[in-house]
Structures are given as C-alpha cells and as structure tokens.
Amino acid sequence: MPMPRWWVHINKRVFNPPAIAGGKRPVLIHVGRVSGTTYRTPLDAHPVDGGYLFVPVYGSSSDWVRNILAAGSARLRVDGTEIDLAAPRLVGVEEAYQAWPDSVARPPKLLRITEFLRMDLVTA
Fold this sequence. Notes:
Layout: H1 6-22, E1 27-31, E2 38-42, E3 45-48, E4 51-54, H2 63-71, E5 73-78, E6 81-92, H3 93-99, E7 115-121
Antiparallel strand pairs: 1-2, 1-5, 3-4, 4-7, 5-6, 6-7
Pfam families: F420H2_quin_red
Organism: Nocardia amikacinitolerans
Protein name: Deazaflavin-dependent oxidoreductase, nitroreductase family
C-alpha cells in the first residue's frame, strides 16, 4: 500500500477543503459510483500527450479511482477552467514514466506506486 489508509480521513477533512477552496491546485470532479454524489478531489494532474496522468498515492483501490473507472469520465478543474476527460485506465510504471513530463519530479520510490490513472482529453 503506497500510503496508509488512515491518512485518507485526515486528508479529506483537514487538507482537501482548503486546497479545493483555494483554487490553485487541480481538482478532479467525479461522481460516486454508488451514491451518485459529485465529489471534488484535489490531485496533482500531469499533462501528457492527449490527456492527463494522475498518481493514486493511496493505491488504485481508492474511492476516487474506482468512481472514475466506473463512470468512464471525469472533469478536471485547472486554473479555473474545467476540462472533460474520458477513457480512464490504469497504467503501469513503465507506461506512465514514458509519458511523464520531463519537468516534473517522479513520485518517490518510498511510496511504492505501481499503477497510475491515465485519462484522455475529450475533443469537441
């Protein structure tokens, strides 16, 4: 497990609300697979050719990852603009790092991240 699950609860209640309200971090907007509730999750969004790459620091079984995989789409708010994303898929380290932007540091090996979420831009 990349990050301890108990940290999720602290993050959701303490760190995420100001990150969402501040408007400076990218926010992934997705719908709950069971509840149908709209959720906003602040994440690092790495632009790659034709889409974005996300690092599931709590693993691919995180609710936000499962919600997006079930829905097949999400929206990403970056710098006040919302972008439609589709075709979510989990990719391995090799594929993720081939697409990874050179200007961005990779996640620390200590986190033991083995899967990344990649999504494509929806074109009009």
